[in-house]
């Protein structure tokens, strides 16, 4: 019996991380600005929550 195996070497689609890194390199400064503004906004949000949740100590 002659059985021929057909092998198709398809590369899997790139992972999400690879696509994100490629997009970040392509966009350049815009992605850095977005990252920094997100980090700053998150930090301010955490500080706001900490100040609102501060316990009131009687004197």
Catalogue the unreliable spans. Answer: none
- The helix-and-strand class reads mainly alpha
Shape: elongated
Task: Bin the helical content.
Answer: 55-70%
What would you report as the Rg, rounded to the nearest angstrom?
Answer: 25 Å
Q: How many separate helices?
A: 2
Classify the beta-strand content into a percent band: under 5%
- C-alpha end-to-end distance: 94 Å
* Helix/strand order, N-terminal first: HH
Please summarize the sheet with the most strands: none
The counted number of beta strands is 0
> What is the mean pLDDT?
84
Fold and architecture overview:
Helices cover 61% and strands 0% of the residues. The radius of gyration is 25 Å and the shape is elongated. It starts with 15 loop residues before the first helix and ends in a 7-residue tail after the last helix. The chain has a domain at 16-52. The longest helix has 24 residues, at 29-52. It is mostly helical. The mean pLDDT is 84.
């Amino acid at each position: 019996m002659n059985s021929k195996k057909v092998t198709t070497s398809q590369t899997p689609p790139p992972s999400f991380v690879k696509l994100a890194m490629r997009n970040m390199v392509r966009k350049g400064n815009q992605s850095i600005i977005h990252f920094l503004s997100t980090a700053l906004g998150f930090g301010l949000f955490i500080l706001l929550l900490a100040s609102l949740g501060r316990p009131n100590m009687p004197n």
